[in-house]
Amino acid sequence: MVGTAPAGPFMLAEENLEGWIRLPKEFLKPSTAKFFLLRVKGHSMNRAKVNGDLIENGDLVLVRQQQSSDTGEIVVSLIDGEATIKRFLRGHGYFVLKPESTKQDYQPIIVNKDFQVQGKVTKVLKKGTELIDIDNNT
């Protein structure tokens, strides 16, 4: 697990290894891909679902590293060194990072080429899940 990513206001993106988590192999497909976990902080994506699971404050999201995304996917993006989790949409000559929240405070972020996709959210691991085995002895 490499840190926290906001589903809300931007947060400075810094890799902060918190520990190791052992996951079932079927979560990590394709096997040639690289994955990382982030803890969700905030509420801007609390209506978004990945494989039927809502993305809520305190959950872990499994992210497949990739530098591009298809429209409609939920991604971790960097804008000016700050990370956020949002739904990725393509416009004509621009991109939209769209929140999906029960709160109306969150607005879409419109960007052109001044951002980077870090990866696609592939799974939500709900806070309190006993499946997760965290080893903080790194």
Structural class: mainly beta
How many H/I helices?
A: 0
Distance between the termini: 11 Å
Please mark out the parts with pLDDT under 50 across 5 or more consecutive residues, or reply none. Answer: 10-14, 132-138
CATH topology: Umud Fragment, subunit A
CATH architecture: Ribbon
Number of domains: 1
Report the helical percentage: under 10%
What does this structure look like?
- The chain is mainly β.
- The chain has one domain (4-135): Umud Fragment, subunit A, CATH 2.10.109.10.
- 0% of the residues lie in helices and 43% in strands.
- The chain has no helices and 13 strands.
- It has strands at 4-6, 11-12, 20-22, 35-41, 49-50, 53-54, 60-65, 74-79, 82-90, 95-98, 109-111, 116-125, 133-135.
- The strands form three sheets. Strands 1, 2, 4, 7, 8, 9, 10, 11 and 12 form a nine-stranded mixed sheet that branches. It has a two-stranded antiparallel ribbon with strand order 3-13.
- A hairpin with a 2-residue loop joins strand 5 (49-50) and strand 6 (53-54).
- The model is unreliable at 10-14 and 132-138 (pLDDT under 50).
